[in-house]
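Sequence in, structure out.
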Amino acid sequence: MKRLYKLLLCMALVLSAGAASAQKTLAVMNDSIASLAKPLTGIQTMRTVFSSLPDSIFPVLTKNNRLDCIDFFDSHMKAVVKNRFSQESEMKALTKDYLSFQTSPSSSFEMKLLPVNDSTQIFCLVKHAFGPACDSEVFFYNFSWEKLPVSRYFTMPDMNAFLVPDSTHANLSAIDMKLYKVSLDSLSTDLKVTFTSLEYLTKEDATAVTPSFRKEPIRYQWIEGKFVRKE
């Protein structure tokens, strides 16, 4: 009888341990599912979009980083956090539909919410890299976090668009990299593009070619769901 009791007790302990393990596994799975970014619907604010983004869009920032920056900014504090690589990242600006963020000394990004129609928005993300000069890359996303074709919404001007019309151009061979800075407007849905290749040239080369280029950026306006050049 004693041997049977011990056997039953051992079986109960094994079953109990198995149940506890199963509950723990289920809890971990539920936490993982809950941590996934869910698609958003309806008209959004930048706070909602930025806090809900999947980590894959900004791998350097954790969700806690993003939430902390929003809290700091709303509290009128300097919105600085330590990112995944233990570098300082700072939110520079946050409005209802715009965000500016300095990710590191050599990189930053901007985001802007843009209306497609009365009930649909997308967001534009511009990433800046600072090497010999600033160079930007433009992305568009919907609120299911799907990357959209850039060509549907924006066409980057080429270098020739920045040349002064009807002028004698110097030898432009010194410009071996075509770099462009794309800037979103915090107060409107406008966008501007600046040709930045001149900034990495030697002083001599820059002096020679600068007169060939317009001083003003090329500006775009968001019209009927796409960026249209103003000029």
